Amino acid sequence: MDLSISLNKFISDTGYCSRREADKLIESGRVLLNGRPARLGNRYEEGDEVEVDGSLITAPKKDKLVYIALNKPAGITTTTEMHIPGNIISYVNHPKRIFPIGRLDKDSEGLIFLTNDGNIVNKILRAGNKHEKEYIVKLNKPAEQGFVARMSTGVPILDTVTAPCKVVMSGRQTFSITLVQGLNRQIRRMCEALGYSVVSLKRVRIMNIQLGTLATGKWRNLSDAEVAMLKASVSGSDNTAKASPKVKAAPSERPRRESPAAKPEKALKQSAKPAKKADGNNTPPPSSPKKSSYKDYRSKGKRK
């Protein structure tokens, strides 16, 4: 496999100048490739020496992968949009360009990961992976008998019914809930559907990584063991597989324009819905020898 890159791209990647300017340098004989005058179209391979005006140009260092666990305070918005007041990126103020894995409501607090590893983001967030997330919730009033059964077996919200989940009461008004879904404000909507409102909501676990004693508002680097555990948990995941349908979040809960890092989370916003019936525009013309199904039309990209 050819791992070489064009010489002008290599020079540009080092930050020395643009590709166009690199071509001009090459044309004017100011660039040497392994001690010989470079020519337009030359390619750079790892280990080659490149000189510009007698100075050695070194390959850019690969950005070290960062994995952070943050105990997000309430009031911080999970977005990379820097113009949004209280955005999570400005709050963490990390020297490297990082982005959050998934979302945590502005009003909620607790464990959230941030990283510059785009590959693992998609694997974690893809709806089919069914990764567990555990929360501690406090209600506005004591839970009535049957609350646990109704919450754990599925609650109708957002035109669907939530997937079965684990619910354990820890007090008259507090409980823990473990989800494998990520519908928009799911826990709050579930409680509201049963006649309660959420006073506080805190995420304490994502997969096998615990929030532990990390103070509110503080962050730490994941240990090597935790990173290895994280990668092992998604080793069989396909980060290119199709996600489940999208659900719009309430306007007050997310910025108008969503960042690239936040997009994978949309895959968790809604469980699968029944397929819509094809409308008149999808009906094949009378001359068609065979009436295709809606599925066939959708797979051929003909649905408008």
From TrEMBL:
Its EC number is 5.4.99.-. It holds the Pfam family PseudoU_synth_2. SUPFAM superfamilies: Alpha-L RNA-binding motif (SSF55174), Pseudouridine synthase (SSF55120). Residues 241-250 have a biased composition (Low complexity). Residues 251-268, 293-304 have a biased composition (Basic and acidic residues). InterPro entries: PsdUridine_s_RsuA/RluB/E/F_cat, PsdUridine_synth_cat_dom_sf, PsdUridine_synth_RsuA/RluA, PsdUridine_synth_RsuA/RluB/E/F, PsdUridine_synth_RsuA/RluB_CS, RsuA_PseudoU_synthase, S4_RNA-bd, S4_RNA-bd_sf. Keywords: Isomerase, RNA-binding. The keyword Zinc does not apply. Residues 5-66 form the RNA-binding S4 domain. It is an enzyme of class 5 (isomerase). Residues 234-304 are annotated as: Disordered. It comes from the Bacteria. PROSITE patterns: PSI_RSU, S4. Belongs to the pseudouridine synthase RsuA family. This is Pseudouridine synthase. It comes from Rurimicrobium arvi. The lineage of its organism: Bacteria, Pseudomonadati, Bacteroidota, Chitinophagia, Chitinophagales. The gene is rluF.
